[in-house]
Amino acid sequence: MSSNPWWQHATVYQIYPRSFADSNGDGVGDIPGIISKLDYLQHLGIEVIWLSPVFASPMDDNGYDISDYQDIAPEFGTLADFDRLVAGAKARNIGILLDLVVNHTSDEHRWFIDARASRQSACRDYYIWRDPAPDGGVPTPLQSTFGGPAWTFDLATGQYYLHQFSTRQPDLNWENPKLRAEIYAMMNWWQQRGIAGFRMDVIDLIGKDIDHGITADGPRLHDYLQEMHRETFGGKDLLTVGEAWSATPDSALLYSGRDRGELSMVFQFEHVTQQWHETWGKWQPKSFDLVAFKRVVDRWQYGLAEDGWNSLFWGNHDLPRAVSKYGDDTRYRVESAKMLATVLHFLRGTPYVYQGEEIGMTNVPFASIAQYRDIETLNMHRQHVAAGLPSTDFIFGANANGRDNARTPMQWSAAPHGGFTNGTPWIEANPNHATINVAASLADDTSILAHYRRLIALRKTLPVMRLGRYQSHLQSHPTVMAYTRDLADERITVLANFSPSPITLDLPVELNTQGELLTSNYPHTPAADSPLHLAPYESFAVLTKDS
Ligand code: GLC
Ligand code: CA
Question: What is the pTM of this model?
Answer without folding.
Answer: 0.98
